[in-house]
From TrEMBL, chain A:
It is found in: Cell membrane; Membrane. This is NADH-quinone oxidoreductase subunit H. The keyword Membrane applies. GO terms for molecular function: NADH dehydrogenase activity; oxidoreductase activity, acting on NAD(P)H, quinone or similar compound as acceptor; quinone binding. It comes from Paraflavisolibacter caeni. One of its GO terms (cellular component) is plasma membrane. It is a multi-pass membrane protein. NDH-1 is composed of 14 different subunits. Subunits NuoA, H, J, K, L, M, N constitute the membrane sector of the complex. The chain crosses the membrane at residues 22-49, 96-118, 130-152, 173-191, 203-224, 253-276, 296-317, 337-356.
UniProtKB/TrEMBL annotation, chain B:
It is a peripheral membrane protein. It is found in: Cell membrane. Residues 126-371 form the NADH-quinone oxidoreductase subunit D domain. InterPro entries: NADH_Q_OxRdtase_suD (IPR001135), NDH1_su_D/H (IPR022885), NiFe-Hase_large (IPR029014). It catalyses: a quinone + NADH + 5 H(+)(in) = a quinol + NAD(+) + 4 H(+)(out). NDH-1 shuttles electrons from NADH, via FMN and iron-sulfur (Fe-S) centers, to quinones in the respiratory chain. The immediate electron acceptor for the enzyme in this species is believed to be a menaquinone. Couples the redox reaction to proton translocation (for every two electrons transferred, four hydrogen ions are translocated across the cytoplasmic membrane), and thus conserves the redox energy in a proton gradient. Its EC number is 7.1.1.-. One of its GO terms (cellular component) is plasma membrane. NDH-1 is composed of 14 different subunits. Subunits NuoB, C, D, E, F, and G constitute the peripheral sector of the complex. Belongs to the complex I 49 kDa subunit family. HAMAP family: NDH1_NuoD. This is NADH-quinone oxidoreductase subunit D.
Amino acid sequence: MWSFSKIAGIIDNWLNQTFSPAIALTIEMVLVGVLVIGLFALLGLVLVIMERKVSAYMQIRLGPNRVGPKGMLQSLADTLKLMVKEGLTPKGADKFLFNLAPFVAMIGAMLVMAPIAFARNFQMWDLNIGVLYITAISSLSVIAILIAGWASNNKYSLLGAMRSGAQIVSYELSAGLSILAIVVLTGSLQLSDIINAQANGWWIFKGHIPVVVAFVIFLVTVTAETNRAPFDLAEAESELTAGFHTEYSGMKFALFFLAEYINVFIVCAIGATLFLGGWMPLHIGSWQGFNHVMDYIPSSLWFFGKTFFLIFVIMWFRWTFPRLRIDQLLNLEWKYLLPISMFNLLLITIMAIMGWHF
Amino acid sequence: MLEEIRTTEQDDLVINVGPQHPSTHGVLHLVITLNGETIKKVEPHLGYVHRSIEKMCESLTYRQFILTTSRMDYLSAHINNHCCVLCVEKGLQLDVPPRAQVIRILMDELTRIASHVLWWGAFAMDLGAITPFFHAFREREVINDIMEETCGTRLTMNYMMPGGVMYDLHPNFQKRVHEFIKLFKSKLPEYHELVTNNVIFQERTKGVGMLSYEDAISYGCSGPAARGSGVSSDIRKLYPYEIYNQLQFEECLEYGCDSFARYQVRMNEMMQSLSIVEQLIDNIPEGDIQAKTKAVIKLPKGEFYSRVESARGEFGVYIVSEGGTTPYRIKFRSPGFSNLSALDQMARGQKIGDLVAMMGSLDLVIPDIDR
């Protein structure tokens, strides 16, 4: 069956035969770096056009339909426009920090990509503390937002950044606890172990109601962590115009924009990996025929299918719900989600110890 | 005034909301003083779309000045025009044919629905839900199409004239309105499902922007803004004009005093307007659409005032005539101006995110405030 690992293996063999190991490794790293950036750009383009099409569908509009077939090249044209646009730095802004912030946002998003398994045996870095690494690095994004808000020398941006700080710091707790649920069940922090543990069924099916609760809490909290509606208080178009990126223009704005979409992709990929089995195909008990057919679908397709389904759900949230207020947002986290997820984690721990899950 | 200035301390954050801001729906400029996220003071600054319409009207004839009022509250252009022609008719002591009266009311109520539908979408958008805006425009388009067939234009209709209306109804009018009634009745439950029953929406509007009964009266609020606080202020009921006293409809009152109460008043009003349209659409009397008037209208010497219930509240026209072909002095009483003045009272001590919800619940149209 076709898979990424074969292609990677062929390239690896060829490089090692042609060059010395050290040079081969260097070339491989450069290749991976280029691939990641390429994937970034591609994902950004795909997600932007997807969001515009999804929102258009929900709002009885056509959406972009002029550039390319069915408007599919619209985001390419937008990127070109953003690239040639002048990147302004406002007067009175902290120039160094102002220009640094988009890159911090980007690099933060890029780093989280490392331990994600895109297909069977196709992972950049399968480190043994994968989940911990992801939770640690994904909290870097708040630093970028705080820098941007502070350095812009704009009151709206400052308000947006402060909101974002309070929001991300508090929602990380629940997100972490719901991720811990799966770690407890698997007994490992390594992403490949977590995926392999789901070979005979995804955690969302195997883990009874507590895992479903953890999954729902995970979805809510990551929506908040990526600053998307109904938790987009940091941007809050109708209140703070655009919040922390009000003053950004051109490619610097585009980097923030891209980082947001990449973050959405990453959290959905993590959700798919932890709860929906990553690249594992759907297997139902002893239905051999059905399981065989499912195995024929490439593992990368499974992974991207699940991820894009979750992305669609998050977009669905955005185009349906009104925005919460900052105090309601924090109430929701500290008064409801956190106690529920703590109790839930306790239940799951008992379940894991007693071996009640399938 | 001096006391107002003193409330601004050195550590306060002063923000200019507008004149270019997505949620001021135009060019309203609010200077807000913040303590963190909490509002200490809201100061509206006007004048960005001042076109001196009142002064302009002094050099326009009684047929011409009506058209300028379409440019004030552009969402209820018909109703503004209606008030002007009522005032001129009062001066001329003109009897309007029954057919023209019914047509005027039909147009008024359709305009009211269109205006409230747009407000519903814009209010939801202020709260961060963008989708309702497009759904609102879907229904508004139908009304606009109906208007376009009969009046020839979609926004500033210029359909009312002293003594009656400009043209007769389009032959399709009744059929299209029936279609609209059917469509709108099927869509209104969707509105409630999408926005009214949404938990986040209710959290954001209930108990926000409190305007007590006494305050609503003392700030001169009218329309849904006043009725949300339980103040009976429907001009159609209190000072009936045309044939409103023969129609079956209710004044929508809510006693919540908050944004949600004002929201519900408008949602109920749409149903009431729809029922008025339903009562009249099959009973349009035959006959003339205009009373006979002279080509050049001269109002007798004196002062004339008329008022109507526009989509935003009480709209009044005050004409001082010296007996010539143009008014000596004209004054419009626009509902938005008084409603806006209550914003400061409502916003103090609330969060900045709620300021937008309060402004939305007042349904401000800036050219109406700033003539």
